[in-house]
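Hi support team,

I submitted a single chain yesterday and got back a structure, but I'm not sure I'm reading the token output correctly. Could someone confirm the output below corresponds to the sequence I sent? I've pasted both exactly as they appear in my results page.

Thanks,
R.
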Amino acid sequence: MSPEPIHEPLQVQDADLAESRFSKVKMAGTVFDDADLRRAAFNNISLANATLHDANLQELRISDANLAESRFSNVKMAGAVFDDVDLRRAAFNNINLANATLHDVNLQDVRIADAETRGMTINGVAVHELLQAARGAGRFGTVMPVLRVTDLQRSIDWYTGVLGMTLLWRKPQDGGGENCMVGEGSVTLLLSTGTHLGAASAFTGTLYFNMADAAAFHEQVKGRVEMVWPLEAMSYGTTEFGVRDPDGYVLAFASRNPTPG
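Hi R., thanks for writing in. Yes, this is the structure output for that exact sequence:
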């Protein structure tokens, strides 16, 4: 007997659906709010006009599906796989698509804003590199610092929970220890407990993060970080402040001051 379709529209809120399987299901108009769908699999389904908000879709697999005019906001989709999916007129906002794979998808009139696309491919083409080329990048693209840390979980909690970055991946290091990558926007950091980086954390410089509004970010993190220097307007045209991470690395956050007149 074929499965009964889910009556639509369905409301799914604050739910754990990790590793669930959905096949031959009608779910048009369904709303997923604060749902855990990690490693779930959707096959031959209709999710047209669906809304997914504050959901975890990491390593989700979707095939032979209709997601036309769906809306995704504040969603983690790192490592997700879309195969033969209709995404016409879908809208993605504030999402992590790092290492996602899209194959044989219809992206007509799709709108994507504030998205992490590093490692994402569409029909085998790397999206991040295309975007970098479109911006007219020179010989060098971005710099990825590699920092030796003593407690990887502590560092992950600090960079994600305090600074608001996203954990993109975590895996063992060949020869011992662990590596992970955290990122936000075009910025990525590799954190490692691997002994190949030396026995202790050591760095004498400062990592500068250029951003649109350092003052607003200062308000967000003050009281939660060790300040190295306070928010101040510098003579060289920036407003900035400095903090120290759990391993003693100094990070500065700066925004360019408006030009007078």
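A quick pointer for reading it: The CA atoms of residues 148 and 240 lie 25 Å apart. Let us know if anything else looks off.

Best,
Support desk
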